[in-house]
Write a sequence for this structure.
């Protein structure tokens, strides 16, 4: 039941993102005052593997100090996210544990997990 509810929320998020023609940034790393890398959820839905909740495609963009896109990676970086304990992110065949108590911005895997698994519910 929770998985179906989360899937509806995620699909609604992606529909809103598509309508706005923007990617949903979940993590940004800054490199000095004139460069940053943003990771965004470009697509997603319910996970095919029942051990996970979501399958997503991650987009990577490099931005200048003013927010203009310098480079957008054309790759389709796929990941799976598990919300329940033990929380994890799977990239290819590697599983990465997520420290759910980490502070936002410290780790991109935590930020992806938080964006998908702790979305506000109304």
């Amino acid at each position: 039941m929770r998985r179906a509810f989360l899937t509806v929320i995620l699909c609604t998020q992606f529909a809103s993102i598509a309508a706005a023609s923007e990617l949903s940034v979940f993590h940004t790393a800054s490199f000095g005052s004139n460069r940053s890398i943003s990771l965004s959820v470009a697509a997603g839905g319910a996970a095919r593997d029942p051990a996970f909740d979501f399958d997503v495609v991650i987009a990577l963009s490099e931005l200048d100090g003013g927010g203009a896109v310098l480079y957008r990676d054309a790759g389709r970086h796929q990941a799976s996210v598990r919300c329940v304990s033990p929380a994890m992110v799977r990239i290819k065949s590697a599983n990465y544990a997520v420290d759910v108590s980490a502070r936002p911005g410290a780790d991109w895997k935590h930020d992806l997990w938080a964006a998908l698994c702790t979305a506000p519910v109304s």
Notes: The radius of gyration is 14 Å. Strands lie at 24-30, 35-46, 54-64, 69-72, 77-82, 88-91, 94-97. Residues 2-117 form one domain.
